[in-house]
Write a structure and sequence with these properties.
With about 425 residues, this protein is an alpha/beta fold. The protein is built from 9 helices and 13 strands.
Length: about 425
C-alpha cells in the first residue's frame, strides 16, 4: 500500500481506465507538512475521515489453543505451512504499523502517545505479528526524526531513526509479537516499481538487508525480510532479465541475507500482472507455478500477496452478480493456490478497508476474505494499525487511542496466540 506522503503512486489517466491495475489512488494523501504540524500540535488529527469512536473489548486470542502458540526459535517452511524448530505449525495473524518509510523517522502516532502504550495495546488486541515498513533513506547518517512527541516518548529523544527502530523491535518482541521488516520504499518520496530506483542502487538495497539481518540476528522473534513492497509496472517474474526479473532479485537478496543470518524467513511478494492479465500491486503470484523462488538455504521462502477491496478500487469482479461467491476463485487463482497446493506458505501481507460491518460491498468483501483466510489457515498482516491510511483507515480511531470496534470484531474471528511476553516487560 501507499503510505502517507506517497504522492508518486497516484495513477495516471491511462492507469485509472484499467480496472485490474489498481494503483490505489486515494492511499494516504496526508503530506509530510501535515504530519509535522500534527506533531507540533501534539494530538492533532492526521486525517479528516470519521471512524467509530468507541473502544473495543480486548479481542485477544491468547487463551485459544492453536498449534505453534508457544513456539520459540527460528522458523522454517514445510510445504504450505510455516513451522517452528519442532515442526509445529505457526500461523501469523498480525498488523502493519507504518511511518518509518514516510520521512518522520518513526512509526506514526508517536506525536499522540507513547510507543510502549501503543505496543501494549497491539498485544492486548491479539496481534501476534508486526509488519514494519521502512524506507532505505532512514539509515542515512543525516536522517532526522520529526514525528515524535518526546514528552510522551522520553527514551526516544536524541535517537536516529535506526535506533528508534531498535526500540520498536525490542518493545514488540518483548511483548510476544513477532516482527517482519518490510522494505516499503527506496526513500520517503514514494514507492518504486523495482527493487532499485534512481535514489537506491541494487547494491545498497542488498547491503541494507544484510546489515539488518546482522543487526537483529540475536533476536529470534524478528523472523524475516519482506524484500520489496509491491513490485509492479516494469517488474517481471521468471523471464531471466536481470534488470526486471523480480524472482531473480529475490533469490539474490535471500541468499545474501542467509550468508549472515540463516534463521530468517524470506518473504517474496508477487507482481501486478501475469502475462497480459493485471492485478493488485504485489498481488499476482501465478508465475510461481513455473518459476518458484529457489534459495540456497532450503525451506525459508514465504510468498506474500496484497489484496484490496472496492473501497480502494472498484475492480470488475466486485460488480459480478455472484459476488462475493466469486471471490475464492479469484484469490485461489492469483495467490492462495500456493498454500492450498503445498507449494509454500502464504502471507497476505496487506488487505484492509474502512467498512467492516453492514451490507456494503467493502464490508462484505472484508468479511468474506477473513472467513477464507481462517478456513485455509493463511497467515496475514492487516493494513493498518494506523488510522491515517486514506483509503482504508485503520484499527485505531483518529484519536490514536481507541479502536474501531467493528474492525476488531472482524479481525478477532481469526487470531492465533502471541508468544509469551519476556520477563521484565513493562506491559506485564
Amino acid at each position: 500500500m501507499n503510505s502517507p506522503m506517497d504522492q508518486n503512486n497516484a495513477p495516471t489517466t491511462d492507469e485509472t481506465t484499467k480496472t485490474s491495475r489498481l494503483p490505489r489512488p486515494n492511499r494516504l494523501r496526508v503530506g509530510i507538512a501535515t504530519a509535522v504540524v500534527a506533531v507540533a500540535a501534539v494530538g492533532g488529527t492526521v486525517t479528516a475521515f470519521a471512524m467509530n469512536n468507541d473502544q473495543s473489548s480486548s479481542g485477544s486470542a491468547a487463551a485459544k489453543k492453536v498449534a505453534g502458540a508457544d513456539s520459540e526459535g527460528p522458523l522454517s517452511t514445510k510445504k504450505g505451512d510455516i513451522v517452528d524448530s519442532d515442526g509445529k505449525k505457526v500461523v501469523l495473524t498480525g498488523v502493519n504499523w507504518f511511518g518509518f518509510e514516510t520521512g518522520t523517522g518513526a512509526p506514526h502516532g508517536l506525536w499522540s502517545r507513547g510507543y510502549e502504550s501503543m505496543l501494549d495495546q497491539m498485544a492486548d488486541k491479539g496481534f501476534n505479528t508486526l509488519r514494519l515498513p521502512y524506507a532505505n533513506d532512514m539509515f542515512d547518517a543525516k536522517a532526522k526524526v520529526t514525528g515524535v512527541n518526546y514528552k510522551l516518548n522520553p527514551d526516544l529523544k536524541g535517537l536516529k531513526p535506526q535506533q528508534i527502530m531498535d526500540k520498536i523491535v525490542k518493545g514488540a518482541t518483548d511483548r510476544g509479537i513477532r516482527v517482519i521488516l518490510d522494505q516499503h520504499r527506496p526513500d520517503a518520496q514514494g514507492q518504486s516499481e523495482l527493487w532499485y530506483s534512481q535514489t537506491l542502487t541494487e547494491k545498497k538495497w542488498l547491503s541494507d538487508w544484510v546489515k539488518l539481518a546482522k543487526r537483529y540476528k540475536g533476536n529470534d522473534r524478528v523472523i524475516g525480510a519482506d524484500l520489496h513492497n509491491e513490485p509492479r509496472g516494469t517488474a517481471t517474474w521468471g523471464d531471466g532479465n536481470p534488470k526486471t526479473d523480480w524472482r531473480l532479485a529475490a533469490q539474490k537478496a535471500g541468499d545474501a541475507i542467509h550468508k549472515v543470518n540463516k534463521d530468517w524467513l524470506v518473504f517474496v511478494e508477487g507482481t501486478d500482472r501475469h502475462k497480459n492479465e493485471q492485478f493488485w500491486w504485489g498481488g499476482d503470484l501465478q508465475g510461481v507455478k513455473k518459476h518458484p523462488v529457489k534459495l540456497k538455504e532450503k525451506n525459508k521462502v514465504v510468498y506474500s500477496a496484497h489484496d484490496y477491496g472496492p473501497g480502494v478500487y472498484m475492480q470488475g469482479w466486485f460488480m459480478k452478480k455472484n459476488f462475493p461467491q466469486n471471490m475464492p476463485g479469484i484469490w485461489e487463482k492469483h495467490w492462495a493456490y500456493i498454500k492450498k497446493q503445498g507449494i509454500g506458505p502464504l502471507l497476505l501481507g496487506e488487505f484492509g478497508g474502512k467498512k467492516t460491518a453492514g451490507k456494503s460491498k467493502e464490508a462484505v468483501w472484508q468479511n468474506a476474505l477473513m472467513d477464507y483466510l481462517k478456513k485455509n489457515q493463511i497467515s496475514y498482516t492487516y493494513w493498518s494499525w494506523n488510522p491515517n491510511s486514506g483509503d482504508t483507515g485503520g484499527v485505531l480511531n483518529n484519536d490514536w487511542k481507541t479502536v474501531d470496534k467493528n474492525k476488531m470484531k472482524m479481525l478477532s474471528k481469526y487470531q492465533t496466540p502471541l508468544l509469551e511476553a519476556k520477563k521484565g516487560n513493562k506491559s506485564e
